[in-house]
Amino acid sequence: MPGNANIAMPTGIESLEERYINSCRRHGVLPNKAVLSAFFKADVKKSRHQLCNLVVFLDDLKDADFLPLLDVFMEIDTSEIDAVDILHESSCVLDGEYVLLLLRAINQKLRVVDLRDLSFGKDFLLDLSQRGLTCQVLNLRSSHFRKLNMIGKFMQIRTLNLDFSSSLTSFREDCFTCMPNLKCLSLCETRVGNLWTTSAALSKLPSLEELRFQNCMCCNNTGPCPASSGGKRTDSGQLDSGLHNDAPSFDFEEIPNQFSNTEEVLRNLFSLNSYDMNDEVESRSECSSDDSEVDFSNCHHEFGLVKLLSDEIPGWNGLQNEMFFSTLGMQDEECSPSSSTSNHIPSIAPKKYISHHPSPICYEKHYREYMIASLPNLKVLDNFLIRKVDKEKANIIFSQHFEYLPYKRKNKECVVSILQMREIKANHTHAKKWMGKASYASGKSQYFYSRSLCAAKVGSSPWPLLCPLSILGRISGDESRNFRPRQFEYHPSDSSLMVFGTLDGEVVVINHENGNIISYIPSLGAMNSVLGLCWLKKYPSKLIAGSDNGSLKLYDIQRKPSTNKAICCSAPSVTFDGFDQLTSVHVNSTDELFLASGYSKHVALYDISSGRCLNVFTDMHQEHINVVKFANHSPSIFATSSFDQDVKLWDLRQKPIQPCYTASSSRGNVMVCFSPDDHYILASAVDNEVKQLLAVDGRLHLDFDIASTGSSQNYTRSYYMNGRDYIISGSCDEHVVRICCAHTGRRLRDISLEGKGSGASMFVQSLRGDPFRDFNMSILAAYIRPNSNTEIVKVNLLASSDNAKECPDNQHSRPSYSKGG
């Protein structure tokens, strides 16, 4: 018929094969036997009226084979081929640029991309993640992503597998923004561990239904375990997502379930169960990557993460084989639906869930409930169906143990809307006053709006701004100075100042807002590591500094305008009698006295005006006293924390022979401090035992119930933030700072510290809440990498990490220790 004259017929498979052979002749290469075999198998499938997919193994190709294939694949969209699968079974040396050109040439018929061992370089990964692909299934197992930032267009992708990516720790803020159809995501045995940033990233996937960070031992894909679900399909119609197999089995709705013997072999080759948990860990490469998203410095085998984590995270070996999920258990812990409801719900899983290839996030307390409550569209988690009762219980557990937003705010609000409401209220109040009418409080004070603004900003910034403190200034002609901070304190009255002491005995006063050094005091051979620092309140230019060799000095630091000239290296000082093996100093509220403690059972009391040691209180504890703190408003009240597991309150007016009271922990106490209003005492014992006590009598007010690691060297420190509204807690064997409500104990957020490159994990050595800025803090961070320095990292929960792209990222090291606060 004339009307059909312009309709182009699809290019036949034989014609494609002939085109390939002719292209090989033009490029002077022999036709690849594996490619010819792939054309033959596709033709057989077409003759059997099966899905005509062309399967290409990169393992069978050399760089010379790509140009002829590119010529053919440029015409693939108009051919009889229904789909093209690009598979990669083992290590091979290929040019990553050729592979990318091949993937892009296939265009809309690209169905499965399975790259098991990425040997194409970091440029390949970056290009793939930033530009995207048109495939439906993307398997990037054992990839070298460190911070995943897949911002490219992946509009067709339905299944993504990043299992065994042992460098992957987190997700960038814009990750997953162009994956509207992604239904199945697998992240087994990665290093992802932060509930908050992970759920925020995953919430951008509107179609996500099946997720796993660990897998049931009998399951190879993200679908529900047949043993627990009776083999029922999920609403998506998928029983097997095809993550692990020769991905032609990807979608049972679209792809027939008949496969040739060749494909059955491929399915076995790509099964996750073909891996052995005890595979040997490959040696680490000496190279390191400066890229913030991709890391090739750690070339572990797929199951090397378990050994890696057991080396870096105390207690990991004892956890790696078994997991306990309260949602799946036969017994409820804190709260459950009413017995009348739960009695009619049969258990769908054994009480003990055997974990297979878990990521660190799985060991977070209430992990399952948190993920279910945060991702309401999720249908399957870790191969277990999510039932209605599971969602109900998850919401209850979430409300008991977590804060969705600060200050009990239930819904995210727009900052502009809050400002408008505040302005309307202010104008309304002003009008009433102008008319001479009495003004009555509406319940929404300025205090209310400031909290609402904080809640709105924290809610809009799941990735808070972290920026290492930049130190600027020339010290006595020294063009570059590498400080090693060991202790720091904010100034009590000047919001821009901070002092830090170093491992080399130096004392540095810095404007932490612009990085300018205000004053520098060298050690002059008299001091070792500075472990004790305390500003005077009534005399804002003075501070006490103490070092671990017992040296104690009072410095008078007059603030000078910052200039480009070298910083003056002198300050008037008063020397006090030494206190051997000092770990802590603290000044009372009237600036008359200060206390010192250290590796002994004694505490020394000093008079600041005379410079004399007034008294040494002996045998106050059974073991050494790590920290001593005066109350903020009572000049004679102080508290001590000791490794004898006791916290004691003392009163100088009663001659501290007997404590006012003693409160005990189950482990040695590392830290103690008073709330800003002295109503509470915050006690921190080894390995995350953090409790809030009533200052008046030492009764327990709150146990923050932070999970322990099992390490006796995991020294924990906690301080108040936002007055006494929140507490921040960190430990020297962990890279996480936890933020909890001081009124309810519920967890608001975890801040994860991440070093640059593999093997550069960061740990918390000390921390302080900013006394002038809500939801701001600074962390003294240490690296695990040998021969590196510590650094002070400023954290702003009210700002997004997008603003931190230009922050310097220095490389430093991890010191140890329980000393000081």
UniProtKB/TrEMBL annotation:
PANTHER family registered for this protein in UniProt: BNAC09G30780D PROTEIN, PROTEIN DWD HYPERSENSITIVE TO UV-B 1
A GO-annotated cellular component: Cul4-RING E3 ubiquitin ligase complex
WD repeat copies, ranges: 618-653
Keywords: Repeat, WD repeat
InterPro entries linked to this entry: DHU1 (IPR046377), DHU1_N (IPR048514), LRR_dom_sf (IPR032675), U2A'_phosphoprotein32A_C (IPR003603), WD40/YVTN_repeat-like_dom_sf (IPR015943), WD40_repeat_dom_sf (IPR036322), WD40_rpt (IPR001680)
Pfam families in UniProt: DHU1_N, WD40
The protein's name: U2A'/phosphoprotein 32 family A C-terminal domain-containing protein
Domain U2A'/phosphoprotein 32 family A C-terminal positions: 364-382
BP terms from Gene Ontology: cellular response to UV-B
